[in-house]
Design goal:
The chain is an all-alpha fold and 51 residues long. It has one domain. The chain is built from two helices and no strands. 2% of the residues are buried.
Length: 51
C-alpha cells in the first residue's frame, strides 16, 4: 500500500495486519510474536499521532 502511495490506507492495513498477527500469536501461545506486534502497534500508533 505504501509503494502504491495509498495514504492513509497503508496505515490502516498495517494496523489490521498487526492485530491479525497478534491473534495468531495468541492462538499459538507464542509470546515472541505477541511482544513484537505489541511493540509494532505502540510504535505505529504514536507515530500516527505525531504525524
Amino acid at each position: 500500500m505504501t509503494g502504491l502511495n495509498l495514504i492513509p490506507y497503508n496505515i490502516y492495513f498495517f494496523f489490521v495486519g498487526i492485530f491479525l498477527w497478534f491473534a495468531v500469536g495468541v492462538m499459538w501461545k507464542d509470546k515472541a510474536i505477541m511482544v513484537v506486534h505489541v511493540g509494532a502497534f505502540i510504535s505505529l500508533f504514536f507515530g500516527y499521532l505525531n504525524a
